[in-house]
Write a structure and sequence with these properties.
Layout (H helix, E strand, L loop, with lengths): L9 H11 L4 E4 L6 H7 L5 E4 L3 H15 L3 E5 L3 H4 L2 H9 L4 E7 L15 H5 L5 E4 L6 H12 L6 E7 H5 L23 H13 L3 E5 L1 H5 L3 H11 L3 E3 L14 E4 L6 H9 L2 E5 L19 E6 L13 E4 L2 H9 L8 H13 L12 H12 L4 E4 L3 H9 L8 E2 L10 H11 L5 E6 H7 L3 H6 L5 E6 L4 H10 L15 H8 L2 E5 L5 H10 L5 E6 L36
Parallel strand pairs: 1-2, 1-3, 3-4, 4-6, 5-6, 7-8, 7-10, 8-9, 10-11, 11-12, 13-14, 13-15, 15-16, 16-18, 17-18
Length: 573
């Protein structure tokens, strides 16, 4: 830096680096240790989105990242400001979401001395980040930022935390903004494993009842077109995980929908009958594989994943390839041949007719009815976010997704409170698209203060609250497995969500009767002057089926409420 140039602080260098990486928005909440950074943002073209809680900031950044494919950025202060991001960081780590979390920190000369609002956020988040930094020199900021953006969105994406002491962001930074990265040992993109691809092709060509299993990795890799080409060439049925929705069109004739604990009966039947299962970007987790000894018994297992740690972690594959799913599938397609699967497709179509997803419109307002009608009203041409619980599973069942990056939900962490702020982030990232958040009355109350954020920015997103006045999924388990001994699930005291939304300045609608569902949803979708809340007061006690009890396999699937008491599950909800 020459003597004629303005002296640049660490905070100013940080913000300029973020600008150079194309950051549009920073989701954050200010505080003392981060003031230099917030001050530098005043003169930046980056727009600061002031949130009402730091957890909301992380979920907004998460939703932004999933909807756009670009890293979301969070900025908070030290101590409790930093620790309030932990849930959102874990959510992003579990679901491989690119995110940069910037935390203010007490000055370096008081670190470790229990200074005001000091927290060892580096140590606290160590197990739930892809990488993290504690910046000790102002001149290190450009290099670290450049490394962070490289790490967060290459290979298997994940959150990167940068802890920034106040004296470092206030100090002078003379380093070049394009300072080179120094990442010895960081893996480069893997070369195509031609031998592994040919082995997978050989096994696929021998199959009579193949099943493609599409996971979140296929979405991240933008592998959708390649997967469609592979499925159509093989004439193979396709199932997807909860996070794999959208990588393969769920309205496609070869789709059998989501598999697993609350997947379609026909997808789970396919698991019990296939002679080969091919996981593309799925990690065989316990939501789809409760009992590894009974998972696709006798079937060959193929696996494609970008993370070597996932190969053989749960199941030992008969063939595999490590790397980018899109590139691998594009190469694999060249080596497979059309299969005679007419009888296999006919069998699965029979299951579709015998075990359709269904619900009764009589006997009170059903959550399934409301969600199904929202799908029909929107024709599925929206970005959907969800919270966690029964409504999440019903949404996964009835809201068919045909496009990648339009289904945002917390999978691995199962984070209540995720859906609404994630919708805000997605709406910022995709201002020309309609975003619908489907949330439960329990989860919504965890982050509903972000209504202020949505109203201030006049975001035209929709919030559909499925209000059964219970923590519904836990209540379902207590009913089925614990003799209906309800404990800690009754949400008596819920507010009037219409009045609450109006108090924030949002438009609000109420649904109480089945006959009003289509009319109210249509009105809500036509409102675009800001956010609107639809309060659907559904029946209190209803259960999600089909269901595979935790720790069990697809062979143990139940289609409807059993008449006998069920044994307590060995796995988690």
């Amino acid at each position: 830096m020459s003597g004629t140039e303005k002296t640049r602080t660490g905070a100013e260098a940080l913000v300029q680096c973020l600008e150079n990486h194309g950051v549009e928005y920073i989701f954050g909440l200010s505080g003392g240790a981060a003031i230099p950074i917030f001050d530098a943002l005043v003169d930046s073209k980056i727009k600061l989105i002031l949130v009402r809680h730091e957890q909301g900031a992380t979920h907004m950044a998460d939703g932004y990242a999933r909807a756009t494919g670009r890293p979301g950025v969070v900025l908070v202060t030290s101590g409790p400001g930093a620790t309030n991001t932990v849930t959102g960081i874990m959510t992003a780590k579990m679901d491989s979401v690119p995110m940069i979390v910037l935390t203010g920190q007490t000055p370096t000369f008081v670190l470790g001395k229990d200074a005001f609002q000091e927290a060892d956020i580096l140590g606290i988040t160590l197990p739930i980040v892809k990488h993290s930094y504690l910046v000790k020199q102002s001149n290190d900021i450009p290099r670290i930022v450049n490394e962070a953006f490289h790490i967060t969105n290459t290979g298997r994406p994940g959150p990167v935390l940068i802890d920034l002491p106040k004296d470092i962001t206030s100090g002078v930074c003379t380093a070049a903004l394009d300072s080179p990265m120094d990442l010895p040992g960081y893996p480069e993109e893997a070369k195509l494993d031609q031998a592994g691809i040919l082995k997978m092709a050989e096994l696929l060509n021998q199959s009579q009842r193949p099943l493609l299993l599409i996971g979140h990795g296929a979405v991240i890799a933008r592998a959708g077109k390649a997967v469609v080409k592979l499925a159509e060439k093989l004439n193979s049925p396709v199932t997807n995980t909860l996070l794999g929705k959208g990588a393969f069109p769920e309205t496609h004739c070869l789709s059998v929908g989501m598999l697993g604990m609350h997947g379609t009966a026909y997808a789970n039947k396919a698991l019990t009958r296939c002679d080969l299962i091919f996981s593309i970007g799925s990690r065989w987790d316990d939501r789809i594989n409760g009992d590894t000894k009974k998972f696709c018994v006798g079937a060959k297992r193929l696996h494609v994943d970008i993370d070597p740690a996932e190969i053989g972690k749960i199941l030992s594959p008969d063939a595999y390839a490590i790397g980018d799913a899109r590139k691998i599938i594009e190469e694999l397609v060249k080596h497979v041949k059309p299969l005679d699967t007419k009888d296999w497709i006919k069998e699965l179509n029979g299951y579709k007719k015998k075990y359709p997803l269904k619900y009764k419109k009589q006997g009170g307002l059903k959550a399934q009815h409301v969600i199904d009608e929202m799908y029909k009203v929107t024709k599925g041409k929206v970005i959907v976010t969800t919270d966690v619980g029964q409504h999440q599973m019903w949404a996964a069942q009835f809201f068919l997704i045909d496009e990648p990056d339009t289904w945002l939900t917390s999978g691995g962490a199962g984070t209540m409170g995720y859906g609404f702020p994630a919708a805000i982030g997605a709406q910022f990232g995709c201002p020309d698209k309609t975003v619908v958040a489907i949330v439960g009355d329990g989860g919504f109350q965890m982050t509903l203060s972000e209504l202020a954020t949505a109203v201030i920015h006049k975001l035209h997103l929709k919030v559909l609250i499925i209000d059964n006045k219970y923590l519904g999924m836990v209540r379902q388990w207590q009913e089925l497995f614990f003799d209906n001994r309800l404990s800690g699930v009754d949400l008596k005291g819920n507010p009037d969500f219409v009045k609450l939304a109006e108090a924030y300045g949002a438009k609000a609608f109420r649904i109480k009767r089945s006959a009003d569902v289509r009319k109210v949803l249509t009105k809500a979708m036509e409102y675009n002057d800001g956010p609107c809340v639809i309060h659907a007061e559904v029946i209190k006690e209803d259960n999600v089926f089909p269901m595979i009890p935790a720790g069990k396999s697809a062979y143990d699937m139940i289609i409807e409420k059993p008449k006998k008491r069920m044994e307590k599950p060995t796995g988690s909800t």
